[in-house]
Amino acid sequence: MSRAAVILLAFAACSTPDPRIPARDGPLVIDVRYPTVGTRVPAVESVAVWGTLGTGRAKLMVNTAEVTVEANGTFAAFLPVPPGLSPSLRFVARRSRDSVVHSIALDRGTRPSTPTTGAAARDDGPQAWNRWVTMQRLPSDTADSATQWRPIYARFRPGGEVALGIAQGIRLFSDARTAQAMRLVLAADQRVWIPRVDADTLTRPRARILRAGAPTVTNITSSDEMLIAVPLPERLPSVVELSGDRLLWTIFGAQWGRRPAAVDGDGSTIRRIVPSDSAAGQVVIDLGLASLPLGWRVEWHAGALQLRVRRRASPSKSLAGLIVAIDPGHPPDGTTGPSRLMEDSVTLAVSAVAAAQLRALGATVLLTRTNGHPLSLEARAVVAEQSPAHVFVSLHLNAPGPGRPPSAVYGTQTFWMNANGRALAQLLLVEVAKAMGQPAIGMYQGEFAVLRPAWAAAVLVEGTGIVVPEREAFLRTPEGVEAYARGVVRGIERWHRMSSTRAIPARPDR
Ligand SMILES: [Zn+2]
Q1: pLDDT of residue 131
Q2: Dihedral sign, CA of 92, 94, 97, 100?
Q3: Nearest-5° angle of CA 120, CA 171, CA 305?
Q4: Across the strands, what pairs with 228?
Q5: How much is the pLDDT for 141?
Q6: Are strands 323-328 and 364-367 parallel, antiparallel or unpaired?
Q7: How far apart are the first and last CA of the chain?
């Protein structure tokens, strides 16, 4: 082995401490935030490790690897999982003649988890059953009123990807069930799954296919909305999907009496509204877009299903009139940094600073929480779905997923779900990374409960990795909190100045 290779290996095993981290010399401890005893490492070769020794003057060995200890005593490393069915990590910390030892047993996950007994636990695959059911959530015992309002999210397979939200109260035919889930027939060739607990099975039958009346269009200038209403005998499930420069609204279980004529839209957001297909027990309303709407949602009102489409305000430098909802991520849950900095306390502080800056620029700001009390995802999502906010931003701090090193989250990531959040996700990625002086890792389409509603432009921001010692130390300073907040504010400002026609996806050839 060459001398250079030896030096390289030594560097890989133990890099130098980060000079930006202030020194701390408290009592010698081994305080490991991750992994904990019993952390499952079923199919990973290495595991992320972070925590603190309480002093920057100590040395740390984990099994046979020397781990860099920062000036404040924190560490974050990516270490091999030892071979064998019961691997464990042995931490040895030393400061002059002092030493502490701590072992953490990991779970290889090869043994079956607690054996399940009894019929309730068995699931032998779908069984036919034919009955009418009503979408209905059990009242929550957590006094969470949000649960009573939110739709039930149906999936393409039990526990799989979300297909659409179905409002509570809708009656549907169910043709199959498993122990935990039931399958719903939306139209002849459209079936989705919901948890069995989310429907009341004592329901009167109705006609399989209902007759839909011609859509009417109302322009509501006061709220910058267009309202497309389809008369129906009762509420049916529907889904709104963006496809190129068209918004397709599909209502399941309906057919036109006679296919209605196309009608003109407002010209600025919607060019033309074309009632198309009513094949296979579903009708499609095809909205040709002139620009990307701010958002949309479907409601049941006065014997009609209504699609409300929100227009974007014209580009403006001033934030006057803009309503921004900020969601300080967690509690419950959340990540803890190496020296015990909690994700939820930072997101709360960042949100308060961002809210003050946005208000100073003229915006109205709503916060999902203003104190440390836990708030359910359901309740947060209701703000995204029901508040008048034009922008919904959920703020978080990152930790690596299983088998990924702490360095993988050094930088900013943003997530969008519905197409109306994409441009905002791009701008927040660039601005938060720039303000915090770190890489922009990337933006992704991801399914998060708070991003499901398409009513506002909604984005989830992972500001940086709280598990990275230097980033955690930065977030402990007012400058770190201010930098994250400033990036969020700049991203929103740039989005507000952007023309809505620029946000529309390319028109596909037809
Ligand atoms: Zn989080």
Answers
A1: 95
A2: negative
A3: 140
A4: 217, 307
A5: 56
A6: parallel
A7: 63
CA of residue 372 to ligand 1 center, whole Å: 14
Query: For the structural domain made of 211-310, what CATH number should be given?
Result: 2.60.40.3500
For residues 322 and 363, give the distance between their C-alpha atoms in angstroms, rounded to a whole number. Answer: 5
Residue boundaries of the structural domains of the chain: 3-105, 124-200, 211-310, 323-497
Tokens read off for 386: 């029901």
Distance CA 447, CA 452 (A): 7
The CATH number, out of the four listed (3.30.70, 1.20.120, 2.60.40, 2.30.30), of the domain defined by the range 124-200: 2.30.30
For residue 494, give Cα distances in angstroms to 291, 427, 430, 499.
18, 7, 11, 10
Q: 327 C-alpha vs ligand 1 centroid, how far in Å? A: 11
Do you know the residue count of the chain? 510
Closest CA to 162 of 380, 376, 424, 446: 446
Classify 323-497 by CATH class.
alpha beta
Q: What is the 396 CA–ligand 1 centroid distance (Å)?
A: 4
* Å from CA of 144 to ligand 1 middle: 21
Q: Ligand 1 centroid vs 484 CA: distance in angstroms?
A: 15
Please give the chain's pLDDT, 510 residues, in tens.
444 444 444 344 457 889 999 999 999 999 999 999 999 988 778 999 999 999 999 999 999 999 999 999 999 999 999 988 889 999 999 999 999 999 999 998 765 555 444 444 455 689 999 999 999 988 765 556 666 778 999 999 998 888 999 999 999 999 999 999 999 999 988 999 999 999 999 889 999 999 999 999 999 888 899 999 999 999 999 999 998 899 999 999 999 988 899 999 988 899 999 999 878 899 999 999 999 999 999 999 999 999 999 998 888 889 999 999 999 999 999 999 999 999 999 999 999 999 999 999 999 999 999 999 999 888 898 888 889 999 999 999 999 998 899 999 999 999 999 999 999 999 999 999 999 999 999 999 999 999 999 999 999 999 999 999 999 999 999 999 999 999 999 999 999 998 665 555 555 443
Task: Say which residues have a Cβ less than 8 Å from residue 304's Cβ, sequence separation at least 6.
Answer: 213, 229, 230, 231, 232
**Residue 344 CA, ligand 1 centroid: distance in Å:** 8
Give 397 Cα–ligand 1 centroid separation in angstroms: 6
Give the sheet arrangement for strand 127-135, strand by strand: 162-166, 152-155, 190-195, 181-187, 171-177, 127-135, 199-200
Rounded distance between C-alpha atoms, residue 298 and residue 288, angstroms: 18
Rounded to the nearest angstrom, the distance between the alpha carbon of 129 and the centre of ligand 1 is 40
Cα dihedral across residues 366, 367, 371, 376: positive or negative = positive
Is 3-105 CATH 2.60.40.10?
yes
Give exposure, 21-59, as e/b (b: 16+ Cβ within 10 Å): beebeeebbbebbbbeeebebeeeeebbbbbbbbbbbbe
Q: Tell me whether the CATH fold assigned to 3-105 matches the one assigned to 211-310.
A: yes
Ligand 1 centroid, distance to 394 Cα (angstroms): 9
